[in-house]
Amino acid sequence: MINRLKWGFFVLFMLFFTQTIMAQDWGNLKRYQKKNAALMASGFDENRIVFMGNSITQGWSDMRPAFFDGKCYVNRGIGGQTTPEMLLRFRQDVINLKPKAVVLLAGINDIAGNRGPSTTEIIYNNIISMVEWAGANEIQVILCSVLPVFDFPWNPGVKPALKVIELNGLLKAYANKHGILYLDYFTAMVDDSNGLKKELGIDGVHPNEAGYAVMEPLLEKAIASLKK
């Protein structure tokens, strides 16, 4: 219960925080500038893997730090972000770090309308732009499905479930066509109403510890299959 309350406050804070700084730094480009500079100064690591995403990615290392400890995993998630914001910071937070691979989990905040209305096509195009940009820089991609969501506590009535399924279908088809790793979290976490299983989430959107525990072995299997 404590973790659930703390995470709920964290999500609300991040939504407020990102909204208030948006006018000054719309893409949140300053968020990881110092950490990126320190990481690049430390030298090149051929096994580095960058996690690019939103609050689901950001909260992962907070809720399950043991998963990241002692590994070459670099978390670059920012709560509340949509795909155009991630695309804007993709060079500095992914490409410039010269990772072996990027774990790309994006799109749910676009569906939620965090920055206004969007379409599946727009979301898909932004994600694929990041995939292609990574490929042009010889960075392997683990393209993640969007997690299931039945409703958003901060924007109810959007009816995201079928939109998530549609977007995931497009991402999977692209990955299969272009020989990219597609990581299917959705199937392992969905309930009968096409939402997130209650026991795996905090608010129907964000995973709890049990949710991340389901995601981690799936990701580790994908990482193990990366080209050497």
From TrEMBL:
Highest taxon in the source lineage: Bacteria
Q: Which UniProt keywords apply?
A: Hydrolase
Q: Which residues cross the membrane?
A: none
Matching entries from CDD domains are given as: SGNH_hydrolase_like_4
Please report the stretch or stretches of sequence annotated as the SGNH hydrolase-type esterase domain: 51-214
Q: Report a single Gene Ontology molecular function.
A: phosphatidylcholine lysophospholipase activity
> In its UniProt entry, what is this protein called?
Acylhydrolase
